Amino acid sequence: MPRPRGRSQGDALLGHRLALAAALLVVSMVVPADEDYWWLPVPLQGDPPNEHHPLTRDLSAKVCGYCHPKQHQQWRESLHALAMSKGLIGQLATTSQQNREACLSCHSPRSEQWATWKTLGSSALGKVDGIDCAGCHVRAYHRFGPRDVAETPHGKVKGLELFKRSEFCQKCHQFPPGQGTVLNGKPLENTYNEWKASRYSREGKTCQSCHMPDGRHEFKGIHDAEMTRRGLRVQVLRTAKGMYVEAKNVGLYHATHHHSRGDNRAGEGEARRVCDSAARHVGPAERLARAKRYASAAGSVA
């Protein structure tokens, strides 16, 4: 279930607040503070500067790809690009307006995207990207990134240290205390806190170290087989009492089963139960074959 908002906001009030925030940023030309950069939804960009080329006034990811083809290709195949999926749209139809807005804040975060969704509803699927380039890099038509770039077709790019820190990802990958669905005593989305409590945080290894190596925009995670192989050690173990699968976290910066465990390990118990449950209904040969298939993506057979 999505994370609920702290308070209800009417469309008119929300529109005034977004417009005011965007206007203040344009007038002041002040770099947004860390806590303001991820004000969600991302405020309306306002009017583009007169000196901008027509292409740089377009905030769509497709246009960004004209000058950043490598990053665009990586992004378009990522789950960020697909954040507004058919599955999510189906869930939005079954929940409250407050929850829908909470979901959209992270799955399609720009206010311009919100306006399209409110106008077209589910028919906007495929017409609006999920988490796009402008959602992360553009505020009031000013571009931001991990480093300064003095001259570009869309003006100066301002470098922010925030882009290099895990806090950049925190807003959408950590539910605040008391908000959102809680399972087994912790938030459904608890990734930032899990990383913060791990040794990798103390060693200076950030979210970007693993999910954006060398600045790549693929945002790979547990859905990627190779990353899973690097992070998990999976073994099929045979004992006098039977056979079970053991999974151990050997290289992930946070827990693998975000929704079911409170520590920083993979859920060995869950893995064993899956194997044992299947094993009760098949013979020894098929039992071993199933266990090997379960482990093949990331581990070895003992």
Give a quick set of tags describing it.
302 residues, mainly alpha, three-stranded mixed β-sheet, 10% strand, globular
Overall tally of domains: 2
Share of helix, binned:
40-55%
Q: Overall 3D geometry?
A: globular
Mean of all residue-level pLDDT scores: 79
Task: Report the biggest beta sheet as strand number plus sense, adding barrel if it closes.
Answer: 3 strands, mixed
Distinct helical segment count: 16
Order of strands, main sheet, comes to 1-2-3
Could you give the count of β-strands?
Answer: 8
What are the secondary-structure elements, in order, as H or E? HHHHHHHHHEEEHEEHHHHEEHHE
Q: Report the sheet-strand fraction.
A: 5-15%
What would your notes on this structure say?
42% of the residues lie in helices and 10% in strands. The chain contains 16 helices and eight strands. By secondary structure, it is mainly alpha-helical. The protein has two domains: 150 residues, no CATH class; 77 residues, no CATH class. The strands form three sheets. A three-stranded mixed sheet has the order 1-2-3. Strands 7-6-8 form a three-stranded mixed sheet. A hairpin with a 2-residue loop joins strand 4 and strand 5. The relative contact order is 0.10. It starts with 10 loop residues before the first helix and ends with a strand. Helix 4 runs antiparallel to helix 5.
In short:
This protein is mainly α and 302 residues long. The chain contains 16 helices and 8 strands. The chain has a 3-stranded mixed beta sheet. Strands 7-6-8 form a 3-stranded mixed beta sheet.
